[in-house]
Amino acid sequence: MTDVFADLVGQDEAVTELRRAAAAAAAVLRTGAADRASALVAAGPASAAEPASAPAGVDPSAGMTHAWIFTGPPGSGRSVAARAFAAALQCVHGTGCGECPGCRTTMGGTHADVRLVVPEGLSIGVGEMRALVLRAASTPSGGRWQVVVIEDADRLTEAAGNALLKAIEEPPPRTVFLLCAPSTHPDDISVTIRSRCRVVPLRQPPATAVAEVLVRRDGIAPDVAQWAAAAAQGHVGRARRLARDPEARKRREAVLAVPRRLTGVGAAFDAASALIEAAEAEAEASVTDSDTTERAALETALGAGGTGRGASGAIRGAAGQLKELEKRQKSRATRAQRDALDRALVDLAGFYRDALTMALRAPVAPVHTDTAALAGAGAQKWDAEGSLRRLEAVLACRAAIEANVKPRIAVEAMMLALWKG
Ligand SMILES: [Zn+2]
What's the predicted TM-score (pTM) here? Predict the structure, then answer.
């Protein structure tokens, strides 16, 4: 029983809804109704309050919709859910069996009618979006649906959002848009796009569910899986990395050593530098390989070193393309640095959260079992109020970086606040 939804951990309600919708979509194809405009239940502007656009007696939640938004905290499986649903739409059985060519090629990322937008930089531009919308309007070659998955739809530029909105407002009959975003807050998704989409909220999966999937799918020992699931705070990908990658464990340990090291102003600044530099190193390690490969591939495609007749013509456009690639790579490196720093801040927030729950004697398990004793000492020293202030300092630092404050400045301010309390 490993169908395409198997990896969607701890999301039973969402899976039920998606299965229903996939079945409804398959029924639409069977009756040949897809090409009539009214075949799908439109999530019109009124749908947030009341499904006024649905015909009487029809439950819109059971039907199929042209545009969806998957929301949830990082690691909850937004993109996993979107891909699984895309596979279920392309499944020849209409269920997402996981076995048929439609399911396999979608999950493998090679289905001709499934387009995946994974922004590598800080935003998705209008050019990319226009091209995508245009291709999405064509007839599906496999005879089912054209599916467009947009990971991190919160990174759409305003112009790109408008291009997408136009397509969602008048969707081609066989096209389905699947958007992923942290939430439906207007900062993440424009109100107009939101009003045209059906929302599938995902929750932070419980640690037990995450541990279970690490054991079942990745063959990780149960005790390691349990520790990693708790330490990753419901983030499935992070839990897997912690369980498997000693470097990731080392970086986490360094972050959790921060509270111990804050003994004065100088130490606070040192800790800030160490945190920033660790994030930079981690980011560099994660992007260097792909940068080199991409550059080599582009140079080959441009005929660098070639002597054929095409080579000289290709070189004329080469400088521009290389420049474009460098711009993309720089943008991706910045993103990777921010992501690495954010992971560190989430770990640190977990530590102060542990101190707070201990000071309050709340009957909940600590996030970081391995620093529980240290958090306990902190709880005694700071009490609930001091622990809460420190937790808030970490969260404020995340918010500041998200709002484009220079990371070093935000982290230094946080370290001072953590030291002073
Ligand atoms: Zn299938």
Answer: 0.69
